[in-house]
Write a structure and sequence with these properties.
rod-shaped, 7 helices, about 5% helix, mainly beta
Length: about 850
């Protein structure tokens, strides 16, 4: 019997399957069904009597003898169907549709299968499947629908609102589990044919892949109507998103995510299309061939951005296993990219790679960050690395363009120890910028720098330190000669500081240049000072023993003075120095450290053989006639200095002074030299040109003045022992005057001598000369306040009893040294 256009209502399925003649029926009553056209069948759950599936077929033909013996062939037979459509249902709503040109259908097993092509689509339009060879079955126990595609599987997951999110999956096989709460698609690859997920420019590879599509809980049966209502404002957009949302995609086994030249590998991957993110777990490797960059860790999280219909990898965050940092290797900070020595290694607990720039890769490190390069060792809390991608032949290589380190930055760079809040390294420019209370020290050279901002120039080995322009009290400092044993240090401070190797001897000296209200303090040498600009030349030798080479092989008398590292200081602009309680001032000054005394006074047998400090002071250039610019020495009032009374005859002031006459002693001239021994016990100075010696009761003038002062210990002031005024000597005290070629005063012995065309004059006594003999001289008895005339045989031989003068005063051209070296002011905001 043939039924045409026969259509079973859903409730009629049982009747169809029981309409055959029972086995005991007679042959006359048997009805044979050969085929059915336009067949529709429906299946219901055994537990809840809910609709689970429905079949539509253009033609269904019963296979002869397909039913077991004694069984009803309609119910237990096998049907060959054409143009089959299987519609599954979840929670009473349409779920997935299966379509195939041919299939074999078994009613009793609730199963259809075929070797033909097949297409599977989601009722809400979220995904579609195509493949070859398939089966569908509704489980007889739990009424769950399942679909499997055996070969040539291609799955597309749609997002109508955002085409860039469209996903295509290819695999060797697919199994679809249809549940009330979700639909689970499980893909399995085979050898050399992994499961592949394609989304925009990104591909995911793995052995096994699982996609979870949640069931719709909005009770909206028509997904397109929900989207339409959301667009017009009549519905909730979140409901429309929920209809097409894919919960997650998970893959295990040889997982790889590839985007262009970048790839993330690991044991497993979780991909969440709704947030455009993925997570790779276990033995993670991120490889960026475009930047010659490789990162290893325990877990990686990737974020993608939408660019029209494309989805591009934007950011990768890699973390290490507990106690194991994430490691990165890239080109050296020096931009030398050949050889293993020219690689830089970065490590941290967490790493982020930003890939949104086509020409640059940005890497962010967090927590316990380390950098290890040939010239740099660095630690910090956070690190931001930016590397260029440059085409070089067929390979794109990375050159680090910029590094920013933040938080507790500590580094060693070319022998420099760096501590600061933030560091910015520009390898291409050869410059490092430090901020956040930076401090730079060179342990081998025993100096340290500090300020508001610091610039380090790598090739020139120059360092510039700046103060905070917004803070008037801000200063920059240089600490010199720090032996690391807690001893006192030489400290220079100002508004701007520059340090670089000496151009004439870069391997021997480092040059420190300061500007702007500069101060100098050296406690061990009892030296303090201030000026407008200062240049210090310091040894770069690593040990004090090597520093002693500056004394021509002699050991320093002091041995522990931290100023041993400073060979010379040039000071300019209103220079003010203080040695103990003695003050020295002038327009500009040179300070030489650790000189040999015999170089300056070969006849002084009692002089220290080495370790002395010499000071040379001159007026400021262009400051002629300005009194404050001329060199000046001020000695404190002491017992010996109090004896500096010139008892000129006839003057009431020649009487012995009282305590209320006490005051300082000031000496001035056009040029000054001073020398102090390393022990700080002796001080000698020379003044030349328009010299004056001023006391509380008189003035002595001449062309040269030499003085020597001593003290018993560091707590005592310097007391003058001898003073010599030479050439055109003129003494004024009250209304009395005296003149001669040489005036010698010995305050401790309270005696003085005026020789060489000596002459005294006062209104009371008139003009007095010592005598006609060349050996005659005035003897000034300071203790008795009287003058007498004596003859000194040595004067007849032309050998006055004074210490010989030094051979040289000032190296030629030293006044222009700062301008030649540094030009105009280098201070910058």
């Amino acid at each position: 019997m043939i039924f045409r256009n026969f259509r079973f209502a859903p409730f009629a399925l049982a009747a169809l399957l029981t309409c055959g003649v029972p086995a005991e029926s007679s042959a006359e009553n048997r009805i044979d069904v050969k085929f059915v056209e336009n067949l529709t069948l429906a299946g219901y759950g055994k537990k809840d009597d809910a609709l689970k599936w429905a079949i539509d077929a253009e033609r269904a033909e019963l296979r002869r003898d397909s039913a077991p013996a004694g069984k009803d062939p309609l119910k237990n037979g096998v049907w060959d169907v054409r143009e089959l459509t299987v519609q599954t249902f979840a929670d009473g709503r349409a779920s997935v549709t299966v379509s195939s040109p041919t299939a074999v259908f078994s009613p009793v097993e609730r199963r259809a299968e075929s070797d033909a092509r097949v297409s599977v689509s989601d009722a809400q339009g979220r995904f579609s499947v195509s493949g070859k060879g398939w089966f569908w079955q509704c489980d007889r126990k739990d009424d769950a629908n399942a679909i499997a595609v055996r070969d040539e599987v291609v799955v597309k997951l749609y997002d109508a609102e955002k085409p860039a999110r469209e996903i295509t999956v290819t695999s060797a096989s697919l199994h679809i589990a249809l549940r009330d709460e979700e639909t689970v698609l499980t893909f399995r690859g085979v050898k050399n044919r992994p499961t592949i997920v394609v989304q925009g420019e990104t591909k995911t590879f793995c052995d096994v892949l699982e996609i979870v599509v949640p069931a719709d809980a909005s009770q909206i049966e028509d997904a397109s109507a929900a989207r339409a209502s959301a667009k017009t404002g009549d519905g909730d957009a979140s409901e429309a998103d929920a209809l097409k949302r894919i919960e997650k995609i998970s893959g295990v086994g040889n997982a790889r995510i590839r985007s262009g030249a970048r790839e993330v590998r690991g044991d497993a991957v979780d991909f969440t299309p709704d947030s455009n993110s993925f997570r790779v777990r276990g033995n993670v490797v991120f490889d960026d061939r475009s930047a010659a960059l490789e990162v290893r860790g325990d877990e990686a999280v990737g974020f993608m951005r939408e660019d029209g219909k494309k989805l591009l990898l934007e950011k990768i965050v890699v973390t290490g296993a507990p106690g194991v940092p994430v490691a990165v290797e890239t080109a050296s900070l020096e931009n030398r990219r050949t050889g293993a020595r020219d690689r830089a290694k970065f490590t941290g607990k967490k790493l982020s790679v930003l890939l949104d720039d086509e020409t640059e890769t940005r890497i962010l490190f967090e927590e316990n960050v380390r950098v290890n390069d040939r010239t740099v060792r660095l630690r910090c809390d956070e690190l931001d690395v930016r590397a260029r991608r440059e085409v070089e032949g067929r390979e794109r290589l990375a050159a680090v363009r910029e590094i920013r380190a933040r938080g507790n930055v500590k580094a060693m760079q070319d022998g420099r120890k760096i501590d600061c809040g933030e560091a910015r390294i520009l390898p291409g420019d050869g410059r490092t910028t430090l901020t956040g209370a930076p401090r730079v020290s060179v342990p081998a050279q025993r100096f340290a720098l500090a300020g508001h901002r610091c610039e380090i120039f790598h090739d020139a080995k120059r360092v510039e330190v700046f103060r905070d322009e917004a803070d008037a009290a801000s200063r920059v400092t240089a600490t010199l000669g720090d032996g690391g044993n807690g001893a006192a240090e030489t400290t220079l401070s100002g508004e701007f500081l520059e340090v670089e190797p000496d151009a004439a001897a870069p391997e021997k000296f480092a040059v420190f240049a300061l500007e702007g209200d500069v101060t100098l303090r050296s406690p061990s040498r009892e030296l303090e000072g201030a000026c407008a600009r200062l240049v210090a030349f310091c040894d770069v030798e690593k040990t004090k023993a090597k520093n002693a080479a500056g004394t021509r092989g002699r050991k320093s008398a002091g041995g522990n003075g931290e100023l041993d590292a400073v060979r010379k200081i040039e000071a300019f602009g209103n220079v003010r120095l203080r040695k103990g309680e003695t003050e020295i001032s002038g327009g500009k000054a040179l300070i030489f450290n650790d000189v040999v005394v015999e170089e300056w006074n070969e006849t002084d047998a009692a002089a220290s053989p080495g370790g002395a400090m010499k000071i040379v002071v001159l007026p400021e250039d262009g400051a002629d006639g300005i009194a404050d610019s001329r060199p000046r020495v001020e000695l404190p009032r002491t017992r010996s200095a109090d004896a500096l009374t010139l008892p000129l005859p006839g003057s009431d002031a020649a009487k012995k002074r009282t305590a209320r006459d006490a005051g300082t002693i000031v000496a001035r001239g056009d040029a000054l030299e001073a020398i102090a021994d390393d022990a700080g016990r002796r001080l000698r100075f020379w003044l030349r040109g328009n010299v004056s010696l001023e006391t509380a009761d008189g003035v002595c003038a001449g062309e040269e003045l030499e003085a020597e002062a001593r003290r018993a210990d560091a707590d005592s002031p310097f007391e003058p022992e001898a003073l010599f005024c030479r050439r055109d000597v003129r003494v004024t005290r009250g209304d009395a005057t005296a003149s001669g070629d040489l005036l010698e005063i010995f305050p401790k012995k309270q005696i003085g001598f005026l020789v060489g065309n000596a002459r005294m004059e006062s209104p009371k006594f008139g003009v007095t000369v010592p005598g006609k003999s060349a050996g005659d001289r005035f003897v000034l008895d300071l203790a008795k306040s009287e003058v007498r005339i004596e003859t000194d045989p040595r004067l007849l031989e032309g050998n006055p009893a004074q210490v010989a003068t030094p051979r040289t005063l000032l190296p030629k051209g030293v006044g222009e040294r700062f301008e030649e070296r540094f030009g105009k002011s280098r201070k910058r905001p």
